[in-house]
Amino acid sequence: MKRAKWSGQLAFILAAAASAIGLGNLWRFPYLAAQYGGGAFIAIYLILVVTLGFTLMLTEITIGRKTHQSQLTAFHRINKKWGFLGVLGTIIPLLIAPYYCVIGGWVMKYFASYAQMIFTGTQLMGEGAVNSGPFFQSFISSTFAPFSYTLVFILISFAVILLGVKHGIEKANLVMMPILFVMGFSLTIYIFSLPGAIDGVRYCLVPNLDGFREANGNFSFALLGKTILGAMGQMFYSLSLAMGIMITYGSYMRKEDSIENSVRRIELFDTAVSVFASLMIIPVVYIFAVKSGMPVKEAMNAGPGLMFITLPKVFATLGTFGTWAAVGFFMLVLFAAFTSSISILEACVAAVCDIFHIKRNKVIFGMMIFVTALASLSAFGYGPWAAVKIFGLQFLDFFDFITNSVLMPIVGALTCIFAGWVMKLKSITEEIELSGHPFRSRALYAVMVKWVAPMLIIAILISEICRAFGIGGWSI
Ligand code: PHE
After folding, report:
1. Is 434 helix (H, G, I), strand (E, B) or coil?
2. Does 302 contact ligand 1 (Cβ within 6 A)?
3. Which of 43, 105, 188, 286 could anchor a disulfide with 150, C-beta 3.0 to 4.6 Å?
4. What is the 25 CA–ligand 1 centroid distance (Å)?
5. With a 6 A CB cut-off, is 19 part of the ligand 1 pocket?
6. Nearest CA, atom 8, ligand 1
7. Ligand 1 nearest atom to the CA of residue 245, by list position
8. 59 lines ligand 1 (CB under 6 A)
9. pLDDT tens digits, residue range 381-420?
């Protein structure tokens, strides 16, 4: 059978960007950047994207285009002994999809709450959104609300997959993504004009080593390692790497399109959205911390709640217009979340279809039950099951940690070793140059894929595991 193909390079870039740009950029990146010291985290992230991220994305797309297979069979096709890597990589989206839908549910709740505020004229979070923190807390810790929203999010995502309106969604993306850019840009400019914002912008952009000092002022390598691991996990997550999505997308790519240029553009879009989201959120946290007399460090440590607690305060300063802006904003975030969740769920469905050769519709139905069951752990995890912890983490944080900080680095390192030592540079270069463009970053790529990437990933992973189990005196 002839394999489906993207209509061109732009279609490919847009599809990959639609998968990449999502909650990872708008929700996860800003809270990590805030927590890990702002500028220093962003600087480390940028270095990682242009080196490690570039290497991995290029590798995955090339493997896909060369084999015309999705990840489950792609590695096996090139070398039988490496088939296990496809299986390992398939587990990751199965663990990410459920908790992604829970966060999608949170976004939906905010969209609904703002819509309600418009219709009823009430202030659900108090005057000036002073109670945005308690509002968020009481929502995620309530018994059924988080699960109900998760369920709606799951049902809509699967409905789209079932109806196969994926292409329609990608067309809609063409309109929604630019609107998201423009809205984000306007909000950022507005935030910059608030009194005191400039210190927050500085916190966000100027790398500062204070984030790596312990309470007694000593520089801590453990904190640096933790930050690099955090940035690396974020990079995998945000660029949709190490879970086969880029392999599958690459398998639909035309030979005449340039892989190298596409990778650069996808990275640029994705990173720009993340940095903008931070410039929108972090200065606001800063201003409100200073205003309320809270230590900045403590305010920055809000974690997953950051977007849901601080942005409402900005919207509140804009009066009625702010409520409308908030509806628009959360609608666009919701849209970005849907396009990403659909790409993860699609990856899960395609993998199961490939392994078991079951009818697609049956797989979709089974997957919906599986995702709902696993998502319920994360959805109830902050509420009725708050006392249940795995390695000291709540379910949602546990799934986030195990995928982004453990499994994705392992799959990422193995993929590099596979490309550098098993496939070898020659065959990768051949595939990349099929488009007629020379492989410009070949030298950088060669060093990265064979040596730097695997060693860096493994070193950080080991140090992190030692830290987690308190081996060798690491502690934070
Ligand atoms: N990259 C997406 C984001 O930033 C999340 C995602 C992860 C999508 C894995 C697909 C696969 O939100």
Report:
1. coil
2. no
3. 105
4. 9
5. yes
6. 340
7. 11
8. no
9. 888 888 888 877 888 888 988 898 889 999 999 999 999 9
pTM of the model: 0.91
Ligand 1 pocket residue status of 22, Cβ below 6 Å: yes
pLDDT at 475: 44
Is there an atom of ligand 1 within 6 Å of 246 CB?
no
For residue 181, count other CB atoms closer than 10 A to its CB.
16
Q: CB count, 10 Å around CB of 443? A: 9
Q: Which of 85, 68, 80, 63 is closest to 430 using CA atoms?
A: 63
Give the three-class secondary structure for 393. Answer: strand
DSSP string, 156-205: HHHHHHHHTTHHHHHHHHHHHHHHHHHHHHHHHHHHHTSTTHHHHHHHHH
Euclidean distance between CA atoms 460 and 318, whole angstroms: 44
Task: State the Cα–Cα distance between residues 254 and 7, nearest whole angstrom.
Answer: 8
Residues 111-157 pLDDT 10s: 999 999 999 988 899 888 889 999 999 999 999 999 999 999 999 99
442-448's contacts with Cβ under 8 Å and 24+ in sequence apart are: 444/51, 444/54, 445/54, 445/55, 445/58, 446/420, 448/51, 448/52, 448/54, 448/55, 448/416
